User: What shape does this take?
Amino acid sequence: MSPSTQSIPGVTLEQRKFYRTEGYLIVRGLWQPEEIAELKQVVDGLAESGKPIPGFWEPQLQPDGSLDPDPLKRYPRMLHLHRHQPIGKRMMLDPRIGAVVRGLLEDEPIACQSMVYFKPPGSRGQALHQDNFYLMVKPGSCLAAWTAIDPSFPENGGLWVVPGTHDLALQCPGPADGTRSFVNNYVPPPEGKRAIPAQLSPGDVLFFNGSVIHGSEPNSHPTQWRRSFICHYMPAAAEEIAEWYFPLHDFHGNVIARKASGMGGPCGADYDWSKFDKFA
Ligand SMILES: O=C(O)CCC(=O)C(=O)O
Assistant: This one.
């Protein structure tokens, strides 16, 4: 049996075929409800304390305790959960995630980053983009594992993906609509392709290739937060990644060395990075 037809533990042949055609895959109920509850308890505890985690989470609190009209000032995304919370590392390197990522990458995975989005009602979204623009994994591409902590649907700012864009070359982003996106990078879907919403329940995981165009709209739900835990991986065969993601880890927790991708990427060394965000 050739490697492309045999079933790899973690993903069925059908799932792998779907991922190869569409560039994404949803695995329902990968996490147990009590695992998501524990994660939620940890990250909500950190968020409610309002205590900054320097370099990883720096909320802006109003001196009088009032809320800024932009909820993301009080609840920005939390970077690299695995570097400061044991549950972040445990979940980033969980064998169930590893098995799916290994099956989709068809290679040993290396973990690159983890993040938490809180996205309370009223938050802006993140305009359509490709993750590998930031991670600059070469050769090949990164892969995201996007875990829903809350139900995730269009009204509360759930994620949208543009199926079939995983084979697209990296596009140089243009500016986004700052009233709807907190990140100033926008990549339009190519001719004939359109974004579809990923409807997820807590514990479901959306896996997608780093070239897939994806993003989210503002959370316009009156009460429903849209928390998510997002990890990125790269295949062991990749030789480079942007330095911002160092240190990298294998699924045994060992630190793995790779070369730093030079700045510039597919958009050239003259790309004006000062106008755009530098990480996914
Ligand atoms: O969760 C979101 O709203 C956007 C996340 C995203 O696009 C990313 O992590 O690359």
